[in-house]
UniProtKB/TrEMBL annotation:
Lineage start: Bacteria, Bacillati, Actinomycetota, Actinomycetes, Micrococcales
Domain DAGKc stretches: 1-138
Name of the featured protein: Diacylglycerol kinase
Names of required cofactors: Mg(2+)
UniProt entry keywords in alphabetical sequence: ATP-binding, Kinase, Lipid biosynthesis, Lipid metabolism, Magnesium, Metal-binding, Nucleotide-binding, Phospholipid biosynthesis, Phospholipid metabolism, Transferase
Superkingdom as given in the UniProt entry: Bacteria
Amino acid sequence: MAARLVIAVNATAGSGRAARVGERAEAALRAAGHAVRRLEAGSPTVMEASIRAAIATGDVDGVVVVGGDGAIHHAVNAVVHTGVPLGIVAAGSGNDVARCLDLPHDDPDAGLQRVIAALAGERPAARAVDAVRVSTGRWFVGMLSAGFDAAVNERANGMQRLQGTPRYVVAVLLEVVRLHARRYRITIDRDTRRLAAVLVTVGNTASIGGGMRLAPDAKVDDGLLDVLVATPLSRMKLLRLLPKVFTGRHVDDEHVSIERGRVVTIDVDDRGPVPVTYADGERFGPLPVTLEVVPGALLVLT
């Protein structure tokens, strides 16, 4: 069918690669017979607002986002719970959302062809997946970090010369000198525990940082959140664990635990600086936060 599409491009993603991919995507979608409206935006926030405005007209059959996890994050916040499916052409540095949705994550042209194929039938072929509603009013689809992992994300976001996994590995090495435990209060489905931890991550998907499988068994359609906690450990111990994160074997360590639930609240239980959280690679704000998984809240073109 001929679909009415909005294509949103984060021109800065992947060191400018997304801009070039966006031009190819627009041309290919038009060649496939679709009506395409390209959104140009100076920032992801403006892009999100533009997508919302386009959907509000009632003349949009699908939104195609070209970029990395940050661009996808803003597109998700615009389309979640609208019934409008999201097509993903991953062209960023980490592309963990595409990876965990079993979409092409290292070949933007393959991602584009997947979107075109999904639109080829009488109705768009879409998969319903879970999204996570946050007490701040925002949504995310991947992972939320609230400990050392959030500090690494903040450091990595300021490193423009490196991309993908190397950027996160270097960020870990730079941040590990400041590693220290905090007291957290974590509630999972009304079960509250107080503990000291260096890392607290809530995953709707399995990986972060370009394939670092922090929550290796997390699934985007099981209606559950995987809550990973790493209790206090030395800097050398953390560095020895780092290579295991890429295979998920770190979960066998005595300092690491994972529990699952539908509603999770995280807060600090000491007097230190309030940690900042990150979700889908985007700065999300300080603790406390409450997260609720909403099954099937997001439609993704497959």
